[in-house]
Specification:
Blueprint (H helix, E strand, L loop, with lengths): L1 H9 L4 E3 L6 E5 L3 H11 L8 E3 L3 H5 L6 H10 L7 E6 L15 E5 L4 H10 L3 E2 L14 H8 L19 E4 L6 E4 L5 H8 L4 E2 L28 E2 L9 E5 L11 E2 L6 H16 L5 E4 L8 H11 L3
Parallel strand pairs: 3-5, 4-7, 8-9, 10-13, 11-12, 11-13
Antiparallel strand pairs: 1-2, 2-6, 3-6, 4-5, 7-8
The structure holds threonylcarbamoyladenylate and magnesium ion (MG).
Length: 313
Amino acid sequence: MIEQALKMLSEGQIIGMPTESVYGLAADATNDTAVARIYAVKKRPSINPLIIHVDSIEMARQWGVFTELAEMLAKEFWYKTPSSLTLIVKRNNAALSHLVTAGLDTVAIRMPMHAIALDLINKFGKPLSAPSANKSNSISPTSAEAVAIELGELIPLIIDGGPCRVGVESTILDVSENDPILLRPGGTTLEAIEKVLGITVKTYTENTPTSNTKSFKAPGMMKRHYAPSIPLRLNAKMALPGEAYLTFGTENQRQNETLNLSESGDLVEATANLFRMIRLLDCSSYNGIAVAPIPNFGLGLAINDRLSRASAE
Ligand code: TXA
Ligand code: MG
């Protein structure tokens, strides 16, 4: 399977790749044609840059400028389980497709924590650009089956690496300028990052001042994203007729609960279940999904971010 994948990648084809966060749609990040295929298959606007996946800090340094701050974060979070952190740094290698970075002077880099992905990248010897393996704006897949449903007919190979351990996309932290800025909450908690850095990290908003490329700071942070086909209603104390009720913990009324993200109120478990359960409910006969309140700290920040985008008009 890996041999076949390597051959396809070197021919400029795109394949489904497991990572610990969500499944990715991988291509040779130095091949413009292959990268263009990603945008086409996903129907993704080409102003929205992609993350490149590396097998080590050593490979990362060949494609982006690793400041002391970036080094520290990579060492801490890329090699510890389970954690998913993408670092935005200045690009430094002309061989990297400019389609990957959508014309920006920065590049998003992460090292996935999945044995198959690491083996693939290591043997390929170059970074793989990979967005989540779903159509633009829909829910990220957390299993090979979900990738097959999303894109199966459009790609030649999906490597099955089992269900994703983390279940939500990586945290994106911009360290390309002096002050780190959180662009997207995700698989590595803000609290953990702040603990390592010993500072409070700002979260990006439209008003965040930056020295350059202001309007492109977070090109992919559309308000509506990660959306199921039926409406999602947040902070729901109960389900309305016809709605599924997705709960968390046991505090909320268990009566008329359809699925529980984590009965024990564990945010790690809830994150791993989130996209799978929303997909399940989306495919059922409900006319909407009511979601119980989720605590807004730790991984709950990522869960609430995805839920609020999924429910946006
Ligand atoms: O966990 C993940 O991050 C997954 C797995 C497959 O690695 N990937 C993923 O990729 O979620 P995608 O394409 O769905 O989201 C990448 C986000 C987009 O919002 C994009 O705008 C942002 O990263 N991004 C990429 N390069 C950037 C850059 N240079 N500056 C700012 N944002 C960037
Ligand atoms: Mg995505």
